[in-house]
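We emphasize that the prediction below concerns an isolated chain of 409 residues; any contacts that depend on oligomerization or on bound cofactors are therefore not represented. The input was used exactly as deposited, without trimming of termini.
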Amino acid sequence: MKYLFVHQNFPGQYLHILQHLTTDPSNEIVFMSEPSSRSMDGVRRLLYTFPRPDQEAIHPVARDLDYAGRRAELVSNMAANLKRLGFVPDIIIGHHGWGELLDLVDIWPGVPLLGYFEFYYHTDGADVVYDPEFVMAPDRFPRVRAMNAINLLALNLGQHGQTPTRFQRDTYPEWARPSIRMIREGAQLDVCKPDPAARKRRFEIGDFKVAPGEKLLTYVARNLEPYRGYHTMMRALPQLMRDRPDLKVVMIGGDDVSYGARLANDTWRNVFLREVESRIDMNRLCMPGQIAYDKYLELLKRSDTHVYLTYPFVASWSLREALAMGCAIVASDVESVTEFITHDDNGLLVPGLDPGTLADTVLKVLADTKLNKRLRVSARRYAETHLDMKDYIASMMATIAELTGKPVT
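Result of the prediction step, given as a token string:
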């Protein structure tokens, strides 16, 4: 089989399916993306450079569409060269978010395209109006609506869509949902697995140390920002540290912004750290930025309680992996999370913007050993039933076989 993958950030959502496909040397795999240092044996990368135009010269409502059109043109030109060299894919797989796929139906008409639909934006629900502390001015609503231009163009291709959760599919209009199939993503259960002995060992990250008798609270996000409840987590720390002198806290996340507004001259990390630093023991808080994956897994294995917070938005991979690791999870009570966590079964749910309730609930999980163990066991059991990466790969391969009409391995 000949595969063409497209995602501006290699490998995007496709790491695990690529790892599976490369085990068969008869598969020919091409991946178009922007340059990066990452590579994978068995995958031929074709790179394009996206020179960002001066955004101030583009009307705000038109910026995403302008960028998408430019990316689509770059990718289609590269695809045309590839076609001239004799490459015709059996299937095209990619993410619709940046517009890269929009013109490929003209290069290879008749080749099935499976596009990733991640989120359909709204001004009257979900993330935009969730947090009263960061109210979006109505004059920004047109920009939010215009962010769906790529979604709508992609849906108009008459091709095939996928998304990983019911929450994400249901953000799309009812008329669009039949063309978007759910292919649930999972976790590598043989890699992300509990280690009960980890909490009996000393844990170190840099100069920060957690002794076996100390309690460890963990929080993970790609970046420390309000969309992932960073402000709520920070505001819970004074009560948590006051009531548990044996508590240490590790918060993983970078200083960039993945979602929502950026600050002109500061980071969200600094803003909310300054708010609470006079009321917490800084020696018991570790904020190392983004860390290596092996250390991240070691951290979750050692965790006594894990906090996952988010606006009503796309759930992070870290939530799936925390469930697979058998963490005792306290999480935001929003629809994107309740698709994974049932309250008082495989985790506890709290209002995502209430630091007091978050602190009270974390303290309860830290103190109640029976509850802690029950949540851990149920989290792992849920992952084994619903989040096995082998099921995701099987679903992807079945979809590819259906769309191409060819046997796959």
